[in-house]
Each structure stands twice: as C-alpha cells, then as structure tokens.
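Materials and Methods. Structural model of DUF2147 domain-containing protein. The 154-residue sequence of DUF2147 domain-containing protein from Acinetobacter bouvetii DSM 14964 = CIP 107468 was retrieved and submitted for structure prediction as follows.
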Amino acid sequence: MQGLYKSLLTGLFLSSVSMFSMAVTHDPLIGKWKTIDDRSGYSRADVEIRKKPDGTYEGVIVETRSLPGAEKAVYCSNCPGALKGKPFIGLPFVWGFKASENNPNEFVDGKVLDPIGGKIYKGKAKLNATGKRLTLRGYIGISVIGRSVTWVKY
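The predicted structure was written out as tokens:
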C-alpha cells in the first residue's frame, strides 16, 4: 500500500512539474513563420522569432525565396548603416517588440526593416486566436499610414 501511495505521489509530482514547464515555455510568438507578401501573395522568407533576455522579441530571416521570374536577392544592398551588404540569412529585421499590457496576443513598440527597400518602420503585431497567423504592421508616424503582412506559423 505504501508503494502504491509513493507511486501515485511521484506521478502527481512529475505531471505537475511537466505541466508547469509547458506553461512557462509555451510562448505562441516564438518559432518559425512563413512570411506572405501582401502584394504578390507569395512566400518571400521564413523567419524565426526569438525572445531575448530583456523580454523583447526579435525575428531573424532563416530562408529566402524569390518571386517567380525574379532573381533571388542574397544581400541587403538597400539596408541602412551596419546592415548594408549583410546576407539576408541571419538578418534581424524585426526587433524590440514586447507583449502589450492590455492584450497578450498583441505586440507593440517594435521596429520593422523592409529588407528590399531598406527603410525601418515602427511596428506592431497581432496573433489570431489560434496563434497560427501573425499580422505584422509596419508604419510611419501613426498606424493608419502603413502596410500589413501576414505570417503563418509552421
């Protein structure tokens, strides 16, 4: 009887630790995303979003694709400053995003680099209810003057 009690207690302890670690490590923004170009409808890149030690999020390009009939760009020739001439693979092009205090599915105060045009915009993002689609908006000044793209998690 005492062995059964210990087994039951051990099982409850391990399952609670497992559930706790899943709750702590599950962050729906972290992971790999396929970007969808809003103008062409094609996937242009895959991005990996990571959470930095300061609690902000950063997205790094891990794969690129060219549009049909276009040459594949390899380097960020239009990027500003230290990013100019850097390879697209490994390029951080979204950074500084933090979870909104009012909505856990919204991320604010970020920056978005348009790697083709070379401009840096203010950014915000919103996850859909399932956590499988992310709408990223880059804008100048106010959010109304901007452009949104959708990313799909895989």
